[in-house]
Amino acid sequence: MYNTPRNSENSAFTLIELLVVIAIIGILMSLLFPAVNSAIDAAKKAQAKNDVTQIATAVIAYETEYGKLPNTTLAPVKVADDWLKALGGSNISSLNPRQIVFIELQGSKKGKSGTNSSGEFVDPWGTNYYAAFDDNYDNHVGVATSGGTSSNLDITKKVGVWNAQTNSRRQVRSWE
């Protein structure tokens, strides 16, 4: 007639039950990680595509303003050096005397694109961007399609920008 206290063995979880719950959580997490990594990679690729489009647009805007493409001695060139600073409006009087900002340059961070410590514009994975210009104004420019720097495709554009990724899922090109 009076209440007996509940036996602690009946109200607690057993070790087996806890292990089963942990195993189920582990299985669910293992199913979730590939989806998260795929979403992160897709976001990085979208950022890289945005970058190459912005660089190409900045070069075209530069040409519209000054009546010439940036001077380059080698084609293709790494998106760096003086002409990148000139597109960013830096004080390079011979390349951008009006100091017009054609593209905003920010430092790269882990998983984000931008300029690295060497002054090179890199994609979200840390790989360099490259650009080729139509220096002779025939509306044809040689670009690389395999992620390298050797021109193996002729496109009908004034400028082509791409990243030097060897992983085809991470390659982006301004002409596509």
Q: Biggest sheet, open or closed, and with what strands and sense? A: 3 strands, antiparallel
Strand order of the largest sheet: 1-4-7
Q: What is the H/E string?
A: HHEHEEEEEE
Oligomer: single chain
Distance between the termini: 83 Å
Supply the number of helical segments. 3
Radius of gyration: 26 Å
The low-confidence runs, each spanning 5 or more residues with pLDDT under 50, are none
Number of domains: 1
Q: What would the principal axes of the Cα set say about the shape?
A: elongated
Q: Count the E strands.
A: 7
Instruction: Give the class from helix and strand content and strand pairing.
Output: alpha+beta
Whole-number average pLDDT? 80
Strand content: 5-15%
Percentage of residues assigned to helices? 25-40%
What layout of secondary structure does this protein have?
Blueprint: H1 8-11, H2 15-66, E1 77-78, H3 81-87, E2 114-115, E3 121-122, E4 129-133, E5 141-143, E6 153-155, E7 159-163
Antiparallel strand pairs: 1-4, 2-3, 4-7, 5-6
